[in-house]
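Box S1 | Example of a co-folding query
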Amino acid sequence: MKKLFLVAGARPNFMKIAPLCRALRSTAGLRGVVVHTGQHYDYAMAESFFTSLGIGKPDFNLEVGSGSHAVQTAQIMIRFEELCLREKPDCVIVVGDVNSTVAAGLVAKKLRIDLAHVEAGLRSRDRSMPEEINRIATDAITDLFFTTEKEGTENLIAEGHDASKIHFVGHVMIDTLLYQLSKMGNRPPSDLAKSIKCLLPQKYICMTLHRPSNVDTAETLRRVLDAVSKLAEKAPVIFPCHPRTLKNIHAFGFERLTPPLPDSRRILEKGMYRTEPLGYDDFLYLWKDACLVLTDSGGMQEETTALKIPCITMRETTERPVTVEIGSNVVTGTDAEKIIQSGLKAVAGEWKDSGIPELWDGKASERIVEALKAIYCR
Ligand code: UD1
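Box S1 (continued) | Returned holo structure for uridine-diphosphate-N-acetylglucosamine
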């Protein structure tokens, strides 16, 4: 039996390992072992995802917690190396582009353990993004690449990687999206989600915002929140707030711009309403019927594309060009006028036609497991 470590650390990783865990459970000869680095640790940011996505309790939790990039990456490396030496995995599978991805990748390769990267090859070409450094560094030492879109494969080949090591498989995040949607049907996942949605008028907007470049400086955060406030005059905005963003809202004194969702449930036909971070199903239940998603996340660009929901990405670049070329995504940066003008179009029901990228069909994890079987179950 070959032992495959599935490493996850931050919120966007959990939906990427969930379908792999499921596919590996029914595969003879391969055993998936879940390693949670603990980069994210609040219940709402981590455990709730393990539960609702059916991953269960991780086999190992390294409990590294927060810190500067160097501290966090180093802590993961130290603890993950000890674990690998003890458990001797045959392959380490990392996903996405967070600090846990690159930290676990470096450890695996230096111990000469095979390294597979799911969601490989994406490039924003913006090296001021920590995630771009994580992507480049991880791919530089990866043995087996799984790509979500053709551009990912092209980037890897342009960087000199051997085409035989690159598998274009589609997107595990979309596997999770379609699976969770099929389980949810029209039933609200929780009373909270139900009560928010009942109160919303027909048209509403969902927003996520957490990128350091957007939320760590008062001027940029203010500009973005002011622009969104203008859109909130046309349709209410539900804003589940990341802990990093919440800290800065308090530090900069911006509470008035984003009042918390009132207990009295007085959602009006306009206004911006801040909530705690929502679980996967609760948030999906809300955004799947939104007239617009405003975001600076990587994954939301893809998830909205898969469901053809208008999406405005408030970043200067995207590493996921297929979401713009084929999908429902528009990249505006943090230019207030662009955000407002694009947002008004979405609220008015005027948006570009979009399609679903190739192989975003819910079967990426099956393709990955087939590729792993061909290598490890011969
Ligand atoms: C990380 C990822 C980012 C991803 C995001 C999703 C890196 C470099 N960045 O950013 O790519 O889009 O996760 O959320 O890996 N905090 C809590 N509770 C938690 C986790 C974090 O309060 O459970 C707070 C802490 O103050 C922490 C801060 O949020 O310092 C930032 O967390 P961190 O993991 O460093 O980065 P994210 O901004 O979450």
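The two ends are 12 Å apart (CA to CA). Residues 2-171+360-376 form a domain with the Rossmann fold fold (CATH 3.40.50.2000).
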